[in-house]
Amino acid sequence: MSLPIEREDPVKMHKTAGALYDAGKYKEAEELFTRTAELYLKVQNYFDSTSMLYKAGECAYALKDYDSAVEHFLKSAELSFQKGFDRFGVSAWEYARDCYSSLKKTAKVKEMEKKIKEVKAKLEASF
Fold first, then answer.
1. Which tens digits make up the pLDDT trace of 62-113?
2. What is the number of other CB atoms lying within 10 angstroms of the CB of residue 38?
3. What is the C-alpha separation between 64 and 61, in angstroms, rounded?
4. How wide is the angle at C-alpha 73 spanned by C-alphas 71 and 79, nearest 5°?
5. d(CA 84, CA 40)
6. Which domains occur in the chain, in start order?
């Protein structure tokens, strides 16, 4: 007799990852947020996917794993800008800039600041 294969439920995983984060279990939360982001992406839930990548970045940032954090934030920003979540994308870029700053990558900090400034100017002009 074989056991039924349990489908991964992104909503349940999202809640579990949030609970892990709240408990300070950042590494476990980061892994679960990343996996949940992939599942949301598969079902074309782009907003929650960008949000999960962002949360994974926050976990890595809390662990001072700035290289991983930057990767999550940049993925979140890229998807955000593709799908028109520009303000969310800017926020992810700001976090990425902070990671680069912690990594002492001055050129990357300047590059991010330039991008952030350009998008913010565009957003302000649209209102």
1. 999 999 999 999 999 999 999 999 999 999 999 999 999 999 999 999 999 9
2. 13
3. 5
4. 100
5. 17
6. 10-125 (1.25.40.10)
As given in the structure block, the two tokens for residue 11 are 């909503």
Which residue, 24, 15, 30, 96, is CA-closest to 88? Answer: 96
Torsion of CA 89, 47, 13, 34, to 10 degrees: -40
Distance of CA 72 to the CA centre of its chain: 5
State both tokens at 100: 């680069």
Q: 72 with 88: CB under 8 angstroms? A: no
Angle at 38 between CA 36 and CA 39, to 5 degrees: 65
Q: CA–CA separation, 63 vs 40, rounded Å?
A: 24
| The two structure tokens encoding residue 71 | 């990767």
> Which amino acid type is present at position 12?
K
Residue found under tokens 């969310």: 88
